[in-house]
UniProtKB/TrEMBL annotation:
InterPro entries found in the cross-reference section: HPT_dom_sf, Sig_transdc_His_kin_Hpt_dom
Sites bearing Phosphohistidine, chain numbering: H59
Pfam family, one: Hpt
Protein name: Hpt domain-containing protein
Organism listed in the record: Tumidithrix elongata BACA0141
Domain of life: Bacteria
Annotated keywords: Phosphoprotein
Gene Ontology BP annotations: phosphorelay signal transduction system
Domain (HPt): residue spans on this chain: 20-109
SMART domains assigned: HPT
Taxon lineage: Bacteria, Bacillati, Cyanobacteriota, Cyanophyceae, Pseudanabaenales
PROSITE patterns: HPT
Length: 118
């Protein structure tokens, strides 16, 4: 995958990992495991109409995504977080669907990178 098509900012990731591919994969796997939990919690917050929880979960996803260079997921989480702040659900299900699609690309990226190490 070229940098422009990558779901992860690989230059940023290499910077923070000092080029250590195994560390990158470990970091990304922790991100994936953690983010899955917060995506599920975001879905629950939407179903419950809990805007505070929606804001908190989206904020967590946003921060974690920014930390690993998952910029598309970061941007979508930011939009969802803003909806939580403004207490509106309009458009959030679509944003969450898009976030899940981008997150799936991150998961595929990590699987491809892991195959290179193994």
């Amino acid at each position: 995958m070229s940098q422009s098509n990558s779901p992860i900012d690989t230059e940023y990731l290499q910077q923070i990992s000092d080029g250590d591919l195994e560390f990158e994969l470990e970091l990304l796997q922790v991100y994936i495991d953690d983010t899955r939990i917060h995506i599920d919690a975001t879905k629950a917050a939407i179903a419950e109409g809990d805007f505070s929880k929606l804001e908190q979960e989206a904020h967590h996803i946003k921060g974690a995504s920014g930390n690993v260079g998952a910029n598309d997921v970061h941007a979508l989480a930011l939009a969802i977080e803003k909806s939580g702040v403004s207490k509106t659900i309009d458009g959030v299900p679509v944003l969450l669907e898009q976030l899940e699609q981008k997150f799936s690309l991150v998961e595929s990226f990590v699987a491809e990178r892991a195959a290179l190490v193994n």
